[in-house]
Amino acid sequence: MSPALPLLPDDSHTTSPFHVGEQKLQSENGSREMMEQFGRKVIRPYMPDQHRAFFAQLPFVVVGAVDAKGWPWASLFPGAPGFAQSPDNRHLDIALNASPADPVRRALHLEAPMGLLGIEMHSRRRNRMNGRVSHLEEDQLQLRVDQSFGNCPQYIQHRDITFLRDATDSAPAQASDRFTKLDPEARRWIAEADVFFVASAVNAQNNPVVEGVDVSHRGGRPGFVQVEGNSLIIPDFPGNNHFNTFGNFLLNPKAGLVFPDFETGTLLMLTGTTELLSKEAPEIRGFHGADRGWRFTLHHGLWLRDALPFRAKLGAFSPHSLMADTWADRAARAEQELSRNAWRQFRVARVKQESSVIRSFYLEPADTAPLLPFEAGQFLTLRARSKDQSTAQVLSRNYTVSSAPGERYYRISVKREEHGDLSRLLHDQLTPGDILEVKAPQGSFYIDPAERRPAVLIAGGVGITPMISMAHHVLREGRRTRHLRPLTILHASRDSAQRAFADEFRALQQATERQIRYLSLIGSATDSETPGVDYNGTGHITDETLRQALSLDDYDFFLCGPPPFMQAQYNNLRRLGVADARIFAESFGPAALTRTLDTATPSQPADQPTEDEAETAEISFTSLEATSTWRPKDGTLLEHAEAQGLTPNFSCRSGSCGSCATRMTQGAVTYRTPPTAEVLPGEVLLCCARPAESSAPLELDL
After folding, report:
1. Do the beta carbons of residue 37 and residue 266 sit within 8 Å?
2. Exposed e or buried b for every residue in 77-97, given b needs 16+ CB within 10 A?
3. C-alpha 155 chain-centroid distance
4. Distance between CA atoms of 55 and 92, rounded to whole angstroms?
5. Rounded distance, CA 18 to CA 224, Å?
6. Which class is 20-328 in CATH?
7. pLDDT score at 10
8. CATH architecture of 455-603
9. Please, are residues 93 and 87 in contact by the beta-carbon 8 Å criterion?
10. Confidence of residue 241 (pLDDT cuts 50, 70, 90)
């Protein structure tokens, strides 16, 4: 077969390699300019030599085509390695071993557009090629290249292939009658699938080079596709941002799906219509790992049994597949969400000493339900009972989660405080296997890894705990979405012995080639410590430190540490001209900043009386015989109770954790700032409540 086009590579694209549907979705995703530059470099009108060699070693290729009635189909064309050969960089020859009943084979004709995907499951490599049928015989076809480009290995499960028979023997393949409804076998087959392939197409009328047929891979854990009657709901995980499939759907909402069973060689082949679903669509909302989704509705389909001459058993799942939900996970989590503020039992799975004063506790659910999702930087509320029976009181406190979202556990990293009852209990008494009660993470201090603006994380002492969660989350999301938000971490600690997570941060710095940058400042160094190796500087974080560490840029700043430390860093940043709106700070506990607005007008946190707040009130606590009189100067009900000698449970003192919830049997309360924690009927959050005008005295079960 003689080539019809020049053989020399041509990297000059006079037009975009993406059609208008792909461009629209790239624009909505914020990646249009980046993808245009990237696409012009990697999407070629010829096959590089490594792609040509790659296709020649494959035992099958995934193919897509459109039948005479305009319905796309996807299939697998098998063959012994070498059945696909590239005579030159513009063409690919494929031996036709597929069943004559295969809809893709039946759709072939000269100049028919085809999508082709080469995928090597044991190495998780894959390359795409879209082209046209330039030559067709009974047992062979030749494709002319329109576009050739590589794909990432995400969501491909490992499989090793073993041939059972000669690949040229397609006789065993048995095609079913076409059907228009999914029967129980098909539903079960789809619900248990961990992989399928999808073909999509755009009529090549405007630009045949970038329009035509595409076929792509979709993978996840079994249960990642949901069957609803005759429709499928499919989460769309982050990929290469080309939006080849969705861009085609936007212009032509039809798709062909093939679900292969590699253990029986059978193909379930479907074609139908599609509907794109945003991340916030009810059908897809809450599915962890999905950036969006789509609905496929069957028009017709068929079974092609024993179509593959080989078998392949499932090996290891892709790490990316394990990070994403199944529909069962989503359903279980939705049920859990109904009780997000309820106490749940967790088992201590592991204890690790992070520094001379900080110890990490790995907490796994004592039940089988999944963890509720959280944002990197949020805190959980924990309560535990002392093992000392003579003082067996229940203690409660908030602790930042130092593990990243997506793990199967919560990690908290706690500094031992001599005057902290719960921290001493955790350090001195807690061992693996112990049971604690935990409320799901919450809080407004967290990082958005999708933000393009670089971020600076400034931590003092144990304030590094939310920052390690943020850094791991940014790296994980960067690998998943192919956008890594640049981070600079500045950590001040008394000395290197008390410093936690330095090795973890340095590993992140190396893994990201310093897109995540870690700088450690210690109060004093030992003679054996080397600057630039064991630490980056001594002393406090000052204005000059920030000038030296940060290049001229627009940053978001995240602060966490002791209140004086955070206030000092806030003041440093404001003196350097950083906008108040660009500074975020941890706020549970007593650590509330005194901020200045960008107009330079001093501003304290809002704390104005409400219209229904009482001028005076009588309060009765069940544990005290006498009533007490409350006045506005007495502050919150928590402060008033403490003044009466009571010791209520509390942690955040800001209405965000719910630890101080107390039953109210009579009277009414008001909140100057509405609490973010759930307040159940008949309960009051002491830390931010004050008596409201009422004809009855306030009675609290405390």
Report:
1. no
2. bbbeeebbebebbbbbbbbbb
3. 14
4. 9
5. 29
6. mainly beta
7. 43
8. 3-Layer(aba) Sandwich (3.40)
9. yes
10. confident
Question: Per-residue pLDDT for 598 more than 80?
Answer: no
Side-chain-side CA neighbours of 347 within 13 Å: the count stands at: 9
> Which alpha helices (H) appear in 395-453, and where do they start and end?
421-429
CB 616 within 8 A of CB 629: yes
Q: pLDDT tens, 342-401?
A: 899 999 999 999 999 999 999 999 998 888 889 999 999 998 988 776 666 788 888 999
Size (the chain), residues = 702
For the chain, residues classed under CATH 2.40.30.10 are 346-442
CATH number attached to the domain at 617-700: 3.10.20.30
Q: Rounded distance, CA 471 to CA 194, Å?
A: 30
Backbone angles phi, psi at 57, to 5 degrees: -105, 5
Instruction: Name 397's Cβ contacts closer than 8 Å, sequence gap at least 6.
Output: 381, 382, 383, 420, 422, 423, 651, 659
Contact present, 422 and 399 (Cβ < 8 Å): no
Q: What are phi and psi of 64, to 5 degrees?
A: -135, 145
- pTM of the shown model: 0.75
Region(s) of the chain under CATH 3.40.50.80: 455-603
List, as own/partner pairs, every contact residues 251-255 make where C-beta atoms lie below 8 angstroms and the sequence separation is at least 24, other chains included.
251/19, 251/20, 251/21, 251/202, 252/200, 252/201, 252/202, 252/203, 254/70, 254/71, 254/72, 254/200, 254/201, 255/72, 255/198, 255/199, 255/200, 255/296
Distances (CA, A) of 45 to 6, 10, 34: 11, 7, 20
DSSP, collapsed to helix, strand or coil, labels residue 151 as strand
Q: What is the pLDDT of residues 472-485, one digit of tens each?
A: 999 999 988 888 99
Contact 669, 685 (CB under 8 A): no
**Sign (positive or negative) of CA dihedral 574, 579, 585, 591:** positive
The string over 422-459, giving b where at least 16 C-beta atoms fall within 10 Å of a residue's C-beta and e elsewhere, is bbbbbbeebeeebebbbbbbbbebbbbbeeeebbbbbb
Distance between CA atoms of residues 564 and 561, nearest Å:
8
Q: Do the beta carbons of residue 490 and residue 458 sit within 8 Å?
A: yes
244-251 helix and 20-29 helix, angle to the nearest 10 degrees = 120
3-state secondary structure of 410: strand
Where are the CATH 3.10.20.30 domain residues in the chain?
617-700
Residue type for 312, please? A
Mean of pLDDT over the chain: 90
Domain formed by 346-442, architecture: Beta Barrel (2.40)
| Amino acid, res. 570 | Y
